[in-house]
Amino acid sequence: MYHVLFEAVLESAAPFVIQLYVMSVQEEPVSVIQMISFFTCLLNLAWPLTTAEVIFLQMEEMAMVKYKLSLFVTQVLLLSSRLLGICYFIFSYQRLPF
Fold it and tell me: In 3D, which of 7, 17, 70, 6 has the Cα closest to residue 42?
């Protein structure tokens, strides 16, 4: 089961990293479609984590819907705060001569 979670996270992380790289190296401002794609990649990154935790807990059906929704929102908020911090760091220090 853990290998499926690992594969799902790695599969979802690749588009997110590519979007972040493209937004950091392009000269023109970030477009709306790039922001939408970035947010969609974030949601795709949170979904495997939510699904894996629900499978590990194996809750009953009625409680699972509310739990899955709240867990998904929690995963999105946790990932977005961490990833936005990384984005801020990259955009703030992209002009350093390394």
Answer: 17
What mean pLDDT is predicted for residues 32-49?
82
- How far apart CA 57 and CA 21 sit, in angstroms, is 36
Across the chain, the runs of DSSP E, i.e. the strands, are none
- The upper half-sphere exposure of residue 12, i.e. CA atoms within 13 Å in the direction of its Cβ, equals 18
Nearest to 52 by CA among 15, 1, 12: 1
Is pTM, for the whole model, over 0.70? no
d(CA 67, CA 5): 19
